[in-house]
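Hi support team,

I'm filing this because I wasn't sure whether my run with nicotinamide-adenine-dinucleotide finished correctly. The job status page said complete, but I'd like someone to confirm that the output block is well-formed before I use it downstream. Pasting the exact inputs I used:
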Amino acid sequence: MRIAMIGTGYVGLVSGACLSEFGHEVVCIDKIAEKITALKEGQIPIFEPGLEEVVAANVKAGRLSFSTDYSAVPQADAVFIAVGTPSRRGDGHADLTYVYSAAEEIAGAIEGYTVVITKSTVPVGTSRKVEQIIRKVRPHAQFDMASNPEFLREGSAIEDFRRPDRVVVGCDTDQAREVMREIYRPLYLNETPIVFTSRESSELIKYAANAFLATKVTFANEMADICEKVGADIQDVARGIGLDGRIGGKFLHAGPGFGGSCFPKDTLALRKTAEDVGAPTAIVDAVVKVNDRRKLDMANKVETAFGGVSGKTIAVLGLTFKPNTDDMRDAPSLVIVPHLQSKGAKIRAYDPEGHKEAKKLLSGLELCKDAYEALDGADGVVILTEWNEFRALDFERVKNALKRPLMVDLRNIYRPAQMAEVGFEYVSVGRPSVSPS
Ligand code: NAD
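And here is everything the job wrote out:
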């Protein structure tokens, strides 16, 4: 199959590279010329483990290429739209500007039978709107629309694309279904479940999945608050409930609130859709509110642990919204760091991959070359992202570097008993705080 992938970001680049690995001929298209120039020179504009190798192998095999224009669209059997759908300022609705402008360009370029697929996360009805846009420009074009939302996670995107739990496809015609089946044929051989459904259901599946996962995280966070009040341990509670097959153990990790490029904007957009269609969702509404408050609550937790932060230096380990990505969109650090700064704290931070984005999104903090440099002379340390390299810190070195052996671990990467034993005041989430034993 010949595929054009419109939008070469986290989703478009990974999907394009993996589809070329499936054997298809893929052209990844983006409006940002520097991105395409870098990719043509073999540089990967984002940090995603394993991506560089897949891109290099498929470029070498002649199946994957990059372009700033839509000249590959006329020959394509399938055109995926994988552009951003951020929150629209003010009302939380998904901003579909990029999707619609891609649709207009596609309309001007398609030739022969083409399946146009929305891979971006888009509200119910968007695929039909895109169809109308294309139809208006090209009333006689031969094309079908399909919805094929993406479920990959940053940090494990390649594996997720190669071995997804399921693929969801919404389309109305047999011809489009055949094209989609052909595109995902290697996954058929793996026995990956493929859910064929209507476009509306497919669009809603993506939002419902993200809202449900966001709800699980938020539920765990509220249980963690109760644990702290009653002396229970959220790790045990999460394990105890997660072993129930009806609940499942994933996404029950208590922490500083969910962030990232999807859950925050997708919960807002679902809430907006629900309101617009007259079926408001109290659960998603509560999740959004609880999660917004959570980030500030965590900043206050740090403040309390430090006994006030004014004039203090805080070492912050981790800035990205989760490990193994350089993505900082809606990361908890974007609320917690400025809040601590506003209370007079000086922040010395280190993140293995986040500094480039941190320079754009945060100000007034010192970015250090490694964890120990960040710790040097600080009044205590806060763990904000659970990068593996923070899971094995040299405790003696940490204690020697800090003025006071205080660790606030908002990701629960250490055990309280262990931290007391090695001489830390240790504050975590949903578990008893401990002092050196
Ligand atoms: P991104 O911001 O990383 O990438 C989007 C790219 O599209 C940008 O490079 C931008 O320059 C390009 N673009 C915008 N308009 C264009 C146009 N008209 N023509 C060509 N290129 C254009 O975004 P992302 O994280 O890859 O997300 C893309 C979509 O996938 C969103 O709807 C998102 O919700 C969804 N999604 C993201 C993830 C994730 O983990 N990032 C996972 C699942 C789904």
